[in-house]
Design goal:
Largest sheet: 6 strands, mixed
Number of strands: 9
Distance between the termini: 50 Å
CATH architecture: 3-Layer(aba) Sandwich
CATH class: Alpha Beta
Radius of gyration: 19 Å
Strand order of the largest sheet: 5-6-7-3-8-9
Helix content: 25-40%
CATH superfamily: P-loop containing nucleotide triphosphate hydrolases
Number of domains: 1
Number of helices: 8
Order of helices and strands: EEEHEEHHHEHEHEEHH
CATH topology: Rossmann fold
């Protein structure tokens, strides 16, 4: 898979729930070999946008293309890894049993699963818990197991909705090293976050507010364009600029 290959393309996206407009005028592309951070406060539309990309929701207006296909992405689902905010695990199964179950859904053969399961458990630092029932896991352990499920089938596109929530700093750093290695090997990653130091680790950032894109670019580009010294200051600067423009329109 060549770096720079377009994996996701959204054009003119709007999403409404009844009369509530959640996303407005969204255009974006996600490329192979790149970690893209979707940055914004809670309620800005990050999860709604993620759900459109993984096929859990449909756009009200606009087009979504993932790995060369249109929704519902049935033909390419085995190339897509997704980690939602809420864990979708079976508490009455062990970690290994959960992985075998989800691996079978991905269409993985038994021999491939036997090789992949120890590797992903080690990646998320759960290598000693394979035989442990998930009901005995802490919240952080369940987050890491959910990530292992998303990584299991070595997807071309990995979509992670706030994957490090509830994890300690050491585990967060370990996971980000893993994310960087996946990108180096050619996978495309979309990671939602509201944590600025995580956003700074991305190759590219899309700043989202009130369902619209405020700005996008590399961390260094966004800091330079805003005349700021940190990403947090840059985000606030773009917010202020947007508010001023909207005030001029309504004046």
């Amino acid at each position: 898979m060549a770096d720079g290959q377009i994996l996701v393309e959204l054009q003119g996206i709007e999403k409404r729930f009844g009369t509530q407009e959640v996303l407005r005028g969204i255009d974006l592309t996600l490329c192979a070999g790149t970690i893209t951070g979707l940055l914004g406060p809670s309620g800005c539309g990050k999860t709604t946008l993620v759900n459109l990309i993984v096929g859990l929701s449909r756009a009200s207006v606009g087009s979504v293309e993932v790995l060369g296909t249109r929704p519902p992405f049935a033909k390419v689902r085995h190339q897509l890894g997704f980690m939602p905010q809420q864990e979708a695990l079976y508490d009455d199964l062990t970690a290994t049993q959960n992985l075998r179950f989800f691996g079978s859904i991905f269409g993985m053969r038994a021999s491939a699963l036997t090789a992949a399961i120890p590797h992903v458990l080690q990646t998320v630092r759960l290598e000693d818990t394979g035989r442990k029932l998930v009901e005995r896991f802490s919240g952080g352990m369940k987050r890491r197991l959910s990530l292992a499920v998303a990584l299991l089938h070595a997807p071309r596109l990995l979509v992670l909705d706030e994957p490090t929530v509830g994890l300690d700093p050491e585990h967060r750093l370990e996971l980000w090293r893993g994310f960087r290695e996946l990108a180096r090997m050619g996978s495309g990653l979309l990671i939602t976050t509201h944590v600025m130091d995580e956003a700074a680790s991305c190759d590219r950032i899309i700043m989202l507010r009130d369902g619209k894109i405020l700005a996008e670019g590399s961390p260094a580009e966004l800091i330079m364009r805003s005349g700021s010294t940190t990403l947090e200051q840059a985000f606030l600067s773009f917010e202020t600029s947007k508010d001023l423009k909207e005030g001029e329109v309504h004046a």
